[in-house]
Amino acid sequence: MFGGVEVECFLQVMNLRQVFVSLLMFGVAGLLLLMYLQVWIEEQHTGTCLETTVRKLEKLPEHCTTQHKHEMTILGSRHWRGRADLFGVVAASLVSQLSDQKKMSESPLSWLRGVYLPPALHPLNKTLVKGGRWKDVDSTQEKRRSFLHDFCKKYNSRKKLQTHLVHLVSRIYVEDRHKVLYCEVPKAGCSNWKRVLMVLNGLATSAHNISHDDVHYGKHLRKLDSYDLKGIYTRLNTYTKAIFVRDPMERLVSAFRDKFEHPNSYYHPVFGKAIIKRYRHKANEEALKTGSGVRFKEFIQYLLDSHRPVGMDIHWEQVSKLCYPCLINYDFIGKFETLEEDANYFLQLVDAPAELKFPKFKDRHSSDERTSAEVVRQYLKELSKEERQLIYDFYYLDYLMFNYTSPTV
User: Fold this and answer.
1) Most buried of 116, 313, 392, 398 (most Cβ within 10 A)?
2) First CA to last CA distance, the chain
């Protein structure tokens, strides 16, 4: 049995613990309140309304993942023009440390969780299309849009990934006059598309008079990530968004031929030297010094290497990672295989000048044979069956998203 003194001491200790716990809870609550006030003051200072941002975030469609097992979660742009978004950092930090149940019940920031709205399939505005010649092209377009929409709904899952909105739109070019957003997919007609955008924007009178260097290095066109957050959301919600894709294997071979079979002052010293050094047995000094003469098999070894000596490049990056087709709801899906008719139909949709037609000319190495299915087969002969299968696996999502036929491997 405890004596009276022991009981009194025990009660005093318990009271102290309760006081300590209460103080700790008040301290945590005060810290959260302070962080919220800091964010509120910062947002007032920058003129950005957080509630408006969240409402716009909630309107964004859900993203189909790049691995079939994840979803993209947008917490907004955590970094914008070099300024840290304190609220995004705090939210991501707290959310990552809580279980899903605690996120919903305990976190005061839970209302800024990921967005889970299915991608909406909006009807195209076809009021500007003139003539009946576009019936078949329009029918094909609707099938592509419906297919991608169904694919994205089917392959969503419960796991979540976080990404930055600014990163999602970093490959999208803006043409404000005709309210066009175009996501650049290299080796799928992107050079001529940027020429067309320059003409639409009044920067040139003809697409045929714009040089390759002006297209790619002139910085005449703005990208969507150069706008503020309001500008990004407004354009995503109101502009006509287009993407043009190509059979993944053809696009890959085309990129290799362009960058490694012709003189190139960037790809040879940066990629070529690293590839030859790592994958060519007993490479001679000239090859190691210049990086010229990379073989297709060596290039594929680099592509499939999980520890690449140099990083990826947009010319052979998957479209699913360039344009995020299940998160950004593209209104128009063109294909390189039907590039001319798709492009000219799109120009009708956005009320482009009647005299503007999509250019037919080959942007570079015009004397070379175009990369066709037959040309691809010749290159694939250099690879083992296992390597061909691994390339298909690498571009698996691109094949599925855009309904391309899997190659015979």
Assistant:
1) 398
2) 83
Cα–Cα dist 152/250, whole Å? 24
Tell me, what's the pLDDT at 19?
Answer: 54
Angle among Cα 236, 241, 242 to the nearest 5 degrees reads: 155
List C-alpha distances in Å: 243 to 91, 117, 383. Answer: 33, 21, 31
Q: Which helix (H) or strand (E) holds 11?
A: helix 4-46
- Give the neighbor-by-neighbor strand order of the sheet with 71-74: 63-64, 71-74, 160-163
Phi first, then psi: give them for residue 407, nearest 5 degrees: -70, 155
How would you classify residue 324: left for phi > 0, otherwise alpha for psi between -120 and 50, otherwise beta?
Answer: left
CA distances from residue 219 to 26, 168, 173, 176, 367 in whole angstroms, order as listed = 53, 20, 11, 16, 28
Whole-number Å distance between alpha carbons of 90 and 240: 34
pLDDT digits (tens, 9 = 90+) for 206-223: 888 887 778 777 778 999
Task: Please indicate whether residue 297 or residue 33 has the higher confidence score (pLDDT).
Answer: 297
Instruction: Give the containing element (helix H, strand E) for 340.
Output: helix 339-349
Ramachandran angles phi, psi of 276, nearest 5°: -65, -45
Can you give the length of the chain in residues? 409
Is the per-residue pLDDT at 97 higher than 90?
A: no
**pLDDT, tens digit, 9 for 90 and up, residues 43-65:** 344 333 333 333 333 343 433 33
Strands 71-74 and 160-163: parallel
What is the DSSP track for 166-185? HHHTTTEEEETTTTEEEE--
Other beta carbons less than 10 A from residue 397's beta carbon? 23
As a three-state string, the secondary structure of 181-230 is EEECCCCCCHHHHHHHHHHHCCCCCCHHHCCHHHHHHCCCCEEHHHCCHH
For the ranges 18-22, 184-188, 337-341, which has the lowest average pLDDT? 18-22
Contact yes or no for 53/229 (Cβ under 8 A): yes
Contact 243, 332 (CB under 8 A): yes
Strand partners, 111: none
Phi, psi of 357 (to 5 degrees): -120, 155
| Structural tokens at position 403 | 């309904």
Q: Which residues contact 251 (CB under 8 A, 6 or more apart)?
A: 185, 186, 187, 188, 316, 336
Instruction: Order across the sheet with 222-223: list the strands.
Output: 222-223, 172-175, 180-183, 240-245, 332-335
